[in-house]
Structures are given as C-alpha cells and as structure tokens.
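lol so apparently i was supposed to do this last week
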Amino acid sequence: MFITFEGLDGSGKTTQLKHLAAALEADGHRVVTLRQPGGTPLGDRIRAVLLDSRSEAEVGTIAPEAEMALMFADRAQSLHQVILPALAQGALVLCDRYTDSSEAYQGAGRGLGSEHILGLHRIVCNNVQPDLTILLLPPLESSLHRARRRNQRHVQQAGTDENRFEREGESFYRRVYEQYRAIAQRDQNRVVVFADEAPIATIARSILEVVRERLAANAANARAPELQKPAGL
Ligand code: TYD
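anyway here it is w/ thymidine-5'-diphosphate bound
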C-alpha cells in the first residue's frame, strides 16, 4: 500500500507520518518512509536547489516551469529507486508529499494549472497513484504561523534555510489551500481530510484507524477471489 501525506507547510504532516510509521511497524508491517522533494541522493540535490531561498543568488530566478519539472525529476527518481521496489517487496510506503503538492503549489500557487501537472504525472510517473492520501488541512492562518516559527528556528540552529516557498505571501498559500480542497472533493476515495485542529495524539489515532481499515479491506479483497473459486480448481 502506497500512502502519501499532504498539507501546507506547518500542517503537522511530517510529525503524523512518523507516528503512523511507528504504529504500523509495531503492528508488524515493514514500512518505508521518504519525503519529496528528496529521499534519494539525486532528490536531495534537487531539494537543496529548490528549497533554499539563497539558491536564486547562484542560479538566477527559477522559472515556475523549471520548478515544476525539477519536482517531477525528483519524483521519477524516487519512484524508480525507492517507491516501486519497496511496494514490490510488500512494504508499506509512506511518502511526505507527492503529486498533489505539485498540483497545489505549482499548479495553483504558481498558476501553471492542474492540467499540466496531471499530464506530466502521466508521462513522468506512469500515472502511479497513492492508494490513500492523508490531507492535513487545518485553517490556513495557523499553518502559516507554525511554518514561520519553525523556519526561524531552523535558520538559527542550522545556518541553512528551507524557505524559498515560505516567503510567499498569503495569497499564494490561499491558492494552495483551495486547490487541496478541490483535490479532496475530486478524489474522495483516495483522499481523507483532517481539517480540525486537535492534539497531535488525537489526530494520530484517527489516521491509524483509517489506515488499519484500508489495510483490512485490501486484505479482504485479496482473499475474495480465493473464496469465490469453485472447489477443486
Ligand atoms: P516539505 O519539506 O514537506 O516542507 P514542510 O515540512 O514545511 O511541509 O516541502 C518542502 C516544500 O516544497 C513545501 O513548501 C512545498 C514544496 N513542494 C512543491 O512546491 N511542489 C512539490 O511537488 C513538492 C513535493 C513540494
């Protein structure tokens, strides 16, 4: 099963992904986790260019189309190097962001449009879709507040920043937020939305419940053809 986590910067998805990974491992599953951009040696380099707000001093303004293509280059590499091999071996793959992020940030935030993103996804990612997407979408204002605080801490502690996106204004993030809502409306079977602000442990329990249900349903589906086979065949 391929599970992705989505949401705005500061929505708490990375924390929730870690909680879920630990709980599923405790249930006896083999779990592989990764993030996008990043998660492979090539992806980590792409991440460094795309996220550090000082990159543009070196490479010039990054065109929205170049940003979109680099996000997909990263994604193709992680599909081939990590995600597909892990799924083939029966692992549960938990990925922090995937193509919904491109649709929300590049498609809506940068204004490139969903069609371009979905078209690239078909070509570059062979249209590989997650089985389940956990979308953490608390009110916009609280996500922005948390993301800003975190980035200030990061600059102070590590001397690097990851805020090329986080310096975007509120209208950019409102477009991202609205696109996430539209994706959830469109793909209701795949996307489960958590929109309430609640303690981390409470949301973690709800997410685990959803995932356990899906895993049980998948297992039942996998057994069903066996049960339907006439005896002796
Ligand atoms: P991430 O490391 O998940 O940041 P956070 O933990 O703050 O959510 O994501 C890094 C940034 O990259 C985030 O601002 C969203 C952006 N992004 C895109 O714009 N498009 C994409 O396709 C992906 C995967 C990420």
